[in-house]
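ok so heres the complex, two chains, lmk if somethin looks off
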Amino acid sequence: MNTTILRSMMMTSLRDKTLFPVGLFVGLGLYIDTPGYAPRLMVGVMALGALFWAMAGQSFQVLQQRNKGVYKLLRVAPLPSLSFIWWMIVSRTILGVGMSGLIVLTGVLLFDIRVTAAGLAWSVLLLIAGSLCFTALGFFVANLARNEAQVNMIANLLYVPMVFGSEAFYSLEKAPAWLAAAGKAFPFQYLVDGLNRTLVLGESLPLFPLLMLVLFTVIGLLLAAVTFRWDEHQALLGARG
Amino acid sequence: MQTLVEARNLRKTYRGRVVVDGVDLLLERGETVAIIGPNGAGKSTTLDIILGLKKADGGTVRFWRPDPLGRIGVQLQQTPFFPGLGALENLKLFASFYRVKLTEARARELLELCGLADATGTEASRLSGGQQKRLAIAASLVHDPELVFLDEPTAALDPKARKEVHALIGKLAKSGTTVVFTSHDMEEVHRLAARVVMIRQGRIAAEGAPEELCARFGVADLADLYVKLVEEADEGDEGDEGVRT
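and the predicted structre for the whole thing:
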């Protein structure tokens, strides 16, 4: 089952979701030719790619599967639904980390960015935590939404403070204090911070960002579990209509 | 004859409205049963309760074995395929839901049975409506179930596709599989079902073989019976005030 789910994800959305971050990185990297900006841009694009792939990708997939009755079918089959959901999350995380690897490779080959083996290893750990966190939020978004338009709307409500309140593409040193504070209330900034420390500054395990990502993952999983709906007609919070 | 499902006195209320009101339903091995009734009559809720998808407020459901899930196949009105995968790969994924390793040969056999031999590698979403329905039925058969529930298997299909699905249900019945299906097409019901269960306002309004029912109610065919029973219910509604609670 696991390889088939992985292949289904690859066939349907990987091309678009890979081309976008790599294209963004190459385009902005060539356009903004400021010394030292490329590594920071690489980290920003990696984090943004992970956010979109895990959160948006997962929420659309969950909505589609729920509305098509996949979860309903799982409930009348012996396979525990959690086992299927777990493999979806694992597949998405594996592909997400692989996509980030492609961005790093682009950075190394095109912008001469130097990355240490330790930095790569820590960044994989951060990306796994980030992907799990955004995937959990993706489930939460899908649970709140009834259709694709609502998924877009709810996801955008989360993206805006996350991305603009982070240091993914610019420094927040001169930004209003409330903007930086808003960013810290979401997990995205911690992924950006952690990746910056490991891949740009060469620090070892960034414990604080990692712990914050784990904390947000737990919150996201709780929100996802409490609001999960087996079928499109089921009301939120488990009340079945 | 062995009883596969014995549902007794099923009851379900939504927000003060009674949707299933003391339904008794027996399903015997090898029979083909049609569950009919107007929209909102309680057909789907009854089946959902039997399948464990909805919790009944009252009543009992007994199966012929303690672990029936692995022996029951379900085809939903929606066609839940995984994008990017071909028909054969979709079947293999559905088989994993039942913890069955579907061999290539068995998958091809199923596709052939469902008239999809030429569509093995075709991405499921590119199949026609009729082919998708037949693939959904094939997906419900990946674990060789003894009992299959088909929810409106021919809804929104053109006559040709409808005929293909009829042939498939006929083959299933002939193979000894117990088939339970819902439909609004009375001609189809007459042709395929050995027993018809009409649900109206959450209760069983009529039950029996098609010819027997027509004779009992003095109507020419099942369509007339359906109209007669629905009109009776509507007249009853006009006499009552509000919904039953």
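quick notes: DSSP finds eight helices and nine strands in chain B. thats all i got rn
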